[in-house]
Please model this.
Amino acid sequence: MQIEPIKQKCVLVIRDLCTQLQAIHIDQLERKWITISMLVIGFFVGIIVIDAFFHGVNPPSKVETIDSASLHLNKEFAEDNLGVQVDDKGNVIVRMVAGRYSFFPKHIEVPAETPITLRWVSMDVLHGVHIPMTNMSTMIVPGYVAEVTTTFPKPGEYPVLCNEYCGLGHNHMWSNISVIAKEDLDCSSKVCKRRIKQ
Ligand code: CUA
Model:
């Protein structure tokens, strides 16, 4: 296919459009309001762009489905696979199951200042998960895998809270994550282990 003629055609169309737009008479006041509305739109689009690229706030990029009724038979979310794992590329992956009324495993240890990919599934109803001080906040819809990558800024105990009403025990549904200083946790093998201090 010839690219040049298409390019020329596009330039002609844009030029034509510009001349037509310039020929339209726009009242001074109208012009002012058009500028203001364009600035407002630009401001909101800017917020979305900054959030998406710098704060990691994205819509679900892909829909990954899973059979919630047979998680124990599923290779990825079988009991032995839950918790913290390090993949071949050295990425820290956390697999968690939400169920009435807890997150499983109940407690995990992860390194601070390290990107961590958390993968969540629900074994029963709709849950939510929120970890204060991080961008970790998502719904956990039965039948789907929710994936969020986050970084814990500093060591400490972080609560993991359910933020979708899921039943009478909803307010008791929480667990916690111990975030350990990067240098105290060895994640060079398949799992993360505490370094023994000399
Ligand atoms: Cu689980 Cu609320």
The CA atoms of residues 97 and 103 lie 6 Å apart.
